[in-house]
Task: inverse folding
């Protein structure tokens, strides 16, 4: 929990540090022109090429990632945090001086000193302001509301820890317990069995189980119930068999916590995936816009109704959003879903059939070529979906999920995914989850690229889509 928040907070500070560093380099070049101390240089000799700005950004990034002064800002004492920052700037500046000696000797020593001094002063002031802001406002990132289930003493200790870690933005709202007379300053909100019903009422984001080992079955039952709600679930160790792959274990004030619903992606993986999604979806939208205009015109000419079809889907961590597609059915198709929905021999719901009477003639061709999915590039840009991932599920289908199937929502949903390129619609809904879990447990950026390449092959061959 804290590790996830720490990554986001320190990542934001790192980006600002790099921006401030580049601004200092720009100002230093103009100061050198204005303040003609020492031997006067020609004006063009002190103006820096853009390649040098890129080199500085990469050099400072590498050094900051190595010495992590941004992380020390919120997790270490003030003296240690400032010392770590000074050491990082000194190392980066020394490396920059060596780079200038080997590549661009026209940059004067005064210009370098102006830059190093400005950078040191600006980053010191910025880090001190961030430290003061975190302490005085008791928040630095989006506030998270936490609920402890079980032990009142653990709730008290966690409330104290979160109060002393203002950068997390976590507030302990209260706890649930069957013991009604537990002393302490943290509010008791109800019994343990009331926990699932208190999530929406108190807008809980993080649930922490702190219950004895003899109540393992009860913890298991409650934690599985919570999988259907958009909350993070953690617990004090004791039910290790509930932990999943890639699940982190960390300590908060001496209390070890096992996170059951953290994203399967590390923060660097998430950032890389998001950057790739934005760049690729923007490129595809520009390149495919003429084709999308033609499709929109054909849809309007064939049948009355809107060009786009918006449908509520369940995404990462159970959050709901409106998925955008080209309309491939008649207007009343949503009300007629029961006409085609059937159940297999095991009682699992099958809601897609090959000869669906609700699909229009143009819609059938769009589905066969998967062109109806193109507007979902807008969902990708909005951060609701990714190019690759488990398909976002319809709420009435997810309502019949077994608890283990909800693990497919631990990553952003995708336009295409592992099961789509290994069977597509030939597989019924309830068999998709095993493929999705394989993708989650074996995730890498290269797997995403492999799936994207294979998607083009499968779509071109028209396999399994209807």
Result:
């Amino acid at each position: 929990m804290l590790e996830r928040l720490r990554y986001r907070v320190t990542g934001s500070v790192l980006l600002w540090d790099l921006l401030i560093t580049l601004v200092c380099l720009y100002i230093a070049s103009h100061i050198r022109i204005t303040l003609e101390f020492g031997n006067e240089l020609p004006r063009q000799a002190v103006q820096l090429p853009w390649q040098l700005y890129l080199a500085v950004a990469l050099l400072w990034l590498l050094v900051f990632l190595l010495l992590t002064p941004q992380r020390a800002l919120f997790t270490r004492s003030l003296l240690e945090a400032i010392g770590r920052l000074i050491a990082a700037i000194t190392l980066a500046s020394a490396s920059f001086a060596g780079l200038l000696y080997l590549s661009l000797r026209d940059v004067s020593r005064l210009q370098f000193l102006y830059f190093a001094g400005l950078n040191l002063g600006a980053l010191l002031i910025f880090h001190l302001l961030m430290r003061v802001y975190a302490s005085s406002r008791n928040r630095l990132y989006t506030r998270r509301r936490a609920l402890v289930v079980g032990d009142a003493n653990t709730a008290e200790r966690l409330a104290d820890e979160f109060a002393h870690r203002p950068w997390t933005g976590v507030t302990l709202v209260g706890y649930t317990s069957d013991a009604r007379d537990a002393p302490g300053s943290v509010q008791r909100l109800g019994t343990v069995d009331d926990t699932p019903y208190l999530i929406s009422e108190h807008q809980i984001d993080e649930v922490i189980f702190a219950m004895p080992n003899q109540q393992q079955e009860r913890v298991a039952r409650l934690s599985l119930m919570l999988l259907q709600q958009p909350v993070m679930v953690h617990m004090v160790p004791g039910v290790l068999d509930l932990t999943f792959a890639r699940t982190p274990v960390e300590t908060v004030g001496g209390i070890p916590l096992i996170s059951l619903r953290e994203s399967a992606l590390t923060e660097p993986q998430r950032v890389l995936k998001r950057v790739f999604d934005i760049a690729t979806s923007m490129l595809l939208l520009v390149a495919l816009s003429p084709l999308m205009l033609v499709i929109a015109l054909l849809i309007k000419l064939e049948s009355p109704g809107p060009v786009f079809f918006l449908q509520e889907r369940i995404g990462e961590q159970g959050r709901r959003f409106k998925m955008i597609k080209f309309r491939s059915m008649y207007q009343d198709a949503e009300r007629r879903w029961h006409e085609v929905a059937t159940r297999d021999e095991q009682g699992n719901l099958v809601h897609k059939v090959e000869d669906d009477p609700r699909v229009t003639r143009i819609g059938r061709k769009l589905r066969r070529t998967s062109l109806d999915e193109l507007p979902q590039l807008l969902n990708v840009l909005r951060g609701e979906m990714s190019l690759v991932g488990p398909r976002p599920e319809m709420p009435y289908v997810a309502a019949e999920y077994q608890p283990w199937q909800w693990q497919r929502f631990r990553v952003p949903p995708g336009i295409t995914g592992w099961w789509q390129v290994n069977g597509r619609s030939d597989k019924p809904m309830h068999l998709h989850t095993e493929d999705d879990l394989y993708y989650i447990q074996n995730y890498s950026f290269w797997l995403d690229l492999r799936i994207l390449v294979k998607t083009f092959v499968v779509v071109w061959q028209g396999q399994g889509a209807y």
In short: The chain is about 50% helix and 15% strand. The radius of gyration is 27 Å. Residues 40-45, 238-246 have pLDDT under 50 and may be disordered. The chain has three domains: 2-137, 144-259, 267-461.
